[in-house]
Design brief:
By secondary structure, the protein is an alpha/beta fold. The chain has one domain: 2-enoyl-CoA Hydratase, Chain A, domain 1 (Alpha-Beta Complex). 44% of the residues lie in helices and 15% in strands. It contains 14 helices and twelve strands. The strands form three sheets. Strands 2, 5, 7, 8, 9, 10, 11 and 12 form an eight-stranded mixed beta sheet that branches. Helix 2 crosses helix 3 and helix 9 crosses helix 10. It is elongated.
Length: 347
């Protein structure tokens, strides 16, 4: 079995908290690699180029950012425990690297607010409950804002729901609260090819759920038990983070579907609708402009520092209107320190 075939087998052996369409896409990319013809190779090359371009854009934004009191942490693509082959093909975020970046921001006394910029369909379950618990505890010390920009699904919403506040962009979505395991039965294909795999094993359940035999009822029940266990963990975590009842999460938070911005707020899955720029504007910062210029060069600013970030003034969802009020509250100081945005490396 090749390493690509082993990777395909891995997709069928673990519980996933991801949009099914995204897992289908990842599997299709691996299947293209297995095919190996010129057309498939060209498709893969175009996909890799798009992935590398996205990474280069993010790196450029990080290079333009300066040290300051707001940390912006990107959570892009499929979520996995480590940066593995799945992320090589589809792009994504490693839970280990994300945890390290989050802890770095929490440990920095100059940072008062952490913003998670999320555009993720979810991913594997490993490490997600642990990081969500860490975020939930950390929000007692610092303000942590999750922005669905434009998708926080499954594992990504699990993390977002633990934050102090969940914001959805007007065109964004959140939800997909569910868990599933995928099983492929290749026994019919093997029979047509005239092949029959034989497992030599010890341990009654060692080869349960393998893709070369029909799924037996006992194996199905064990897989369902795993799915139910993680689903209960997922719903309990969302309920705790959002201050809701577990029953309401299971019955009223989309029931496995993603919901749009306004519906998410109405259901209690999110707190408000705003763009990432509007969220940052309320905190007195803005994204670096192309070419290194600051987009906020002429805007009023507020005092930098952890305390200032935690006490950032509120404004309407339409933009940072409260900035003028801040200038009056500051007592007309001749010079104010400009607030800067830090984009943390996930490495």
């Amino acid at each position: 079995m090749s390493m690509y075939e082993r990777f395909l087998a891995e997709l069928t052996r673990k519980p996933w908290v991801i949009l099914p369409s995204k897992l289908d896409e990842i599997q299709a990319l691996i299947a293209l690699r297995l095919g190996g013809d010129k057309a498939e190779a060209a498709t893969l090359e175009r996909f890799r180029a798009a992935r590398d371009e996205q990474a280069a854009t993010l790196a450029a934004a990080r290079a333009q950012a300066t040290r300051g009191s707001v940390a912006l942490i990107p959570v892009y693509g499929a979520i996995g425990y480590r940066m593995n082959m799945m992320m090589y093909y589809s792009g994504g975020t490693s839970i280990q690297q994300l945890t390290a970046a989050f802890r770095q921001a929490m440990a920095d006394p100059n940072i008062g607010t952490i913003v998670l910029d999320i555009d993720s369909p979810g991913g594997s379950v490993e490490g997600v409950p642990e990081l969500a618990d860490e975020i939930l505890k950390a929000r007692e010390d610092k303000r942590i804002i999750a922005v669905s920009n434009c998708l926080a699904a499954s594992a990504a919403y699990w993390l977002a729901s633990a934050c102090s506040e969940v914001v959805v962009t007007p065109s964004g979505e959140v939800g997909s609260i569910g868990v599933y395991v995928l099983h492929w039965d290749y026994s019919g294909a093997c029979e047509m090819e005239g092949t029959k795999p034989t497992f030599i094993f010890a341990g009654k359940h060692k080869v349960d759920g393998n893709p070369y035999e029909p799924l037996e009822e006992e194996a199905r029940a064990a897989m369902q038990a795993d799915v139910d266990r993680y689903y209960d963990m997922f719903c309990a975590a969302v309920a705790k983070g959002r201050g809701a009842k577990v029953a309401d999460v299971k019955a009223g938070y989309g029931e496995g579907r993603c919901v749009g911005a306004r519906e998410a707020v109405a259901l209690g899955m999110a707190d408000r609708v705003a763009s990432l720029d509007q969220v940052l504007g309320r905190l007195g910062v803005s994204m670096p402009a192309p070419g290194g210029a600051r987009a906020d060069a002429t805007e009023p600013t507020i005092e930098a520092g952890a305390a200032g970030a935690l006490a950032a003034p509120e404004a309407s969802d339409d933009g940072p209107a409260a900035q003028d009020d801040v200038a009056e509250q500051d007592g007309g100081e001749a010079e104010r320190r400009r607030r800067r945005l830090r984009l943390l490396e996930l490495s």
